[in-house]
Fold this sequence. Notes:
Elements: E1 5-11, H1 17-27, E2 32-39, E3 53-58, H2 64-74, E4 79-83, E5 87-89, H3 93-99, E6 105-115, E7 120-121, E8 132-134, E9 140-142, H4 144-147, E10 157-159, E11 167-171, H5 172-177, H6 183-186, H7 192-202, E12 206-218, H8 232-243, H9 257-263, H10 272-280
Parallel strand pairs: 1-2, 1-4, 2-3, 6-12
Antiparallel strand pairs: 4-11, 5-12, 6-7, 8-9, 10-12
Amino acid sequence: xxxxxxxxxxxxxxxxxxxxxxxxxxxxxxxxxxxxxxxxxxxxxxxxxxxxxxxxxxxxxxxxxxxxxxxxxxxxxxxxxxxxxxxxxxxxxxxxxxxxxxxxxxxxxxxxxxxxxxxxxxxxxxxxxxxxxxxxxxxxxxxxxxxxxxxxxxxxxxxxxxxxxxxxxxxxxxxxxxxxxxxxxxxxxxxxxxxxxxxxxxxxxxxxxxxxxxxxxxxxxxxxxxxxxxxxxxxxxxxxxxxxxxxxxxxxxxxxxxxxxxxxxxxxxxxxxxxxxxxxx
Length: 281
């Protein structure tokens, strides 16, 4: 029987990978597979064996987007969940996300901060994070006012303008419709959710936050290095790709960027003058 959900974990020198895998296998309540893409390294000690785990090993690192695509290529589930290799999840996250996911939705769970050594949530007033906005340079930023709004807390499934790329969930067919992850245009790493969110919103889909479940992402307070990084040679490609959205960023785009800004208006860092400038480009 094919799994309902395929979980893709791109991993590059990740020291908390096994904890993340164990957490996913423990917390999932449906039929899942976990596809781990080891991007140019072998973890020490080796990962534990489980029939639900599939491993793709690349002899040399090829980058996060390529790793995600390699996992999706063998995924058997109706749904996809991509997660960073240092995340903890709520019990039954898979069932809750699938219950509230339309065919043209990208869904993110509520986000907390994780202490990966203790494998526990960090008490930080910045969290939980439900809402993020796109700044005028099209980077996702936590939307403090919305995250603290008591009325919005009552809306358990709601629209969000943007999000972080650490965890996202969608129907696998929709991943292919959105033509993710486009390495030729965006490069090997960076601006992951800008690509996802802008393609989704501006082709007529919806980016949603589901507050009925959550994940916790490594709050980078320790001295451990990051798994993935952005080479200097890739920065200009990533920036140019995102900047195209101010005109027309993708051949399936139906709506202008100004439409998205106006949908969530008022948006921090944006002015009416900036919207008019985007509208006339």
